Structure formats: C-alpha cells, structure tokens
TrEMBL record:
This is Transcriptional activator for lysine biosynthesis. InterPro entries: LysR_HTH_N (IPR000847), LysR_subst-bd (IPR005119), NocR_PBP2 (IPR037424), WH-like_DNA-bd_sf (IPR036388), WH_DNA-bd_sf (IPR036390). GO terms for molecular function: DNA-binding transcription factor activity; sequence-specific DNA binding. The lineage of its organism: Bacteria, Pseudomonadati, Pseudomonadota, Gammaproteobacteria, Alteromonadales. Keywords: DNA-binding, Transcription, Transcription regulation. It holds the Pfam family LysR_substrate. Belongs to the LysR transcriptional regulatory family. PROSITE patterns: HTH_LYSR. It comes from Paraglaciecola psychrophila 170.
Length: 300
C-alpha cells in the first residue's frame, strides 16, 4: 500500500512548476537542491509516472504534470485556508458568540463593550438574547448560550460564575419632585415618600427592605416594576422615587429626571456565567477577558 502523499512533496512540485528549475525552487523553499529532488522523487514514486523532463537546464512539466498542477494548486490553497482558519480560531477572530443577559444590561453597560469587541474582530458574529433569570441560568448551564450576565449571588450547580461588575443603588426622581434639588438621599429622607421598586424576592430587593426596617422607616410602595427601564419611566412621570441599580439607570437619564446617590450602600453585583459542564471556548474566554478589562476601567 502506498504511503499518503506528502504535503511537502506537493509544495516542491508546485514550486518547481512556478520557478522552472530545482535550484530556484530549492532556494524559494529554503532547502537544498538534492532535498527538493528527493521530494519530487517521492511524489513521482507515488503517482507512478515522471512529472518533468530536462531541456536546456530547465525542468519541463509533462502533460500529466500540467493536469496534476491545477489540483495540487487547489489542495495547497485549501491547506493555507485551514492554516488561516486555525490561526483565526486560535486568536479568537472567527466564530459566533451567543450571549444572554437582562435587557437593561445589554442596552446599557454591555452595549459599548460588545461594540468594541466586534470592531476588534470583524469576522466574529454575536447573538444577544434576553430571558428571565431562571430561564437564562438553564440556557447557559445547558450550553444553549456560550455565556451570560446574571445578578449575584449565583448558586446554580450547572454554572461557573465570575464577578464582573458591581454598582450602587441610586434614587431616580422627576425634576419636578420636591427632593430633586438634593445632592443625595438617605433612607430617612424617603420617609413618607411614594416608592417605585423592582425585583421583588431578589437579593437586592431583600437588602432594600432590610435597610428600611433597620431605619424604622415604613415603605410606601406605589408601584412594583419588573425592569429598571419601567421604574425610570414612571419615576420621570413623578409617580414616586425609584430605587434602582445605578449602572443600569444611567442610560435612561434625560432632562426630565435626575439620579441621586443613596447614602445607604446597597450593592448590585453581576457575574459572568458559563456552563460548568465544559471549559470556555477560546472566543468566549477572549470576550470574558475583554469584559473584565472594560468593567475594571469602569469601576476605577
């Protein structure tokens, strides 16, 4: 049984076809003239016929060699494409990245980060999806998405979580609100104020409820919302003061509302989550490192 064709022999054949002599081909490939002759001999032994004959110091291709040349050219071109593809994959410059995150997170802090990542990698495509937290966990755990951003703490057994960014709670008010002229608000300032809250049952909401209890300030919840965007929309209409994640609320600020710091520190932490059933692929790892760097700069 014949040995498989040696790619180096095909490269020698192709170079001789282009250069016309074994000496020139050897110089092009960076090997000795006897070395290129051996490679050509290996190929001729494999195909079973002579590929060149000599005429006035040059190697003239046979009719069979001319027919073979086109296929060799295609083969070596395919090898080059495979090499380039492998290089792009190694450098995380090719592929599809599937991300799941809350709507407000995608449209807010993640928007510029994803845009910069794509500018650096023109051949990468990104799929952005949003789901309820429970569904998002399952999607990432079962590898239907490469990664996600989920509010911490996170205890799902199928997820690996790395803290990526944190933010304080702020107060969002209409500019027409009597407290809008203040520089910051404390829990005591919110006594008898109508409130707009989100995330009932979530860790950050539990912290808010606890802060009011510890300060002996009763909560007057006028409106329960499911997203930061909705909470800010109704705060702007002066239906109450929204207590929300500052990082997410910044994108909704306009001339009709203000963001004031809450003196009581209530943190919102987000984690970069991947499936614990398999290591991150190279593209996901590159995106994680990109996010980590950008969010670190954001926190400075």
């Amino acid at each position: 049984m014949k040995n498989p064709i040696n790619l180096k022999s095909l490269e020698a054949f192709q170079t001789i076809m282009e250069r016309g002599t074994a000496t020139a081909a050897a110089k092009e490939m960076g090997i000795t003239q006897p070395g290129i002759s051996r490679l050509l001999g290996v190929l001729e032994e494999h195909v079973g016929f002579q590929l060149f004959y000599r005429e006035k110091g040059r190697l003239i291709p046979s009719d069979e060699a001319l027919v073979l040349h086109h296929e060799v050219e295609l083969t070596l071109s395919s090898v080059d494409r495979i090499s380039l593809l492998a290089k792009n994959l190694f450098n995380s410059e090719l592929g599809v990245l599937k991300i799941v995150a809350p709507n407000s997170f995608i449209a807010g802090p993640l928007a510029n980060i994803v845009a910069d990542f794509l500018k650096q990698r023109p051949r990468v495509n990104v799929s952005l999806d949003t789901h309820a937290p429970a569904a998002a966990r399952e999607i990432v755990a079962h590898r239907s998405a490469d990664c996600g951003f989920i509010q911490l703490p996170e205890t799902h057994p199928g997820l690996t979580s790395e803290k990526i960014v944190e933010s304080n709670t702020c107060c969002v008010l209409s500019k027409a609100h009597p407290l809008a002229s203040k520089k910051r608000l404390g829990i005591k300032d919110l006594h008898d104020q109508q409130l707009i809250l989100i995330g009932k049952g979530r860790y950050s909401r539990v912290q808010i409820d606890e802060a009011f209890r510890n300060a002996n300030v009763p909560m007057r919840v006028r409106l329960e919302a499911h997203t930061v965007a909705i909470a800010c929309t109704f705060a702007k209409r002066n239906l109450g003061i929204a207590l929300v994640n500052e990082l997410l609320a910044k994108q909704y600020v306009d001339n009709d509302m203000v963001l004031l710091p809450l003196t009581h520190k209530i943190k919102h932490e987000y984690g970069f989550v991947t499936s614990s059933h398999a290591p991150m692929n190279r593209l996901t790892k590159a995106f994680y490192l990109h996010c980590k760097e950008r969010f670190n700069n954001l926190n400075k």
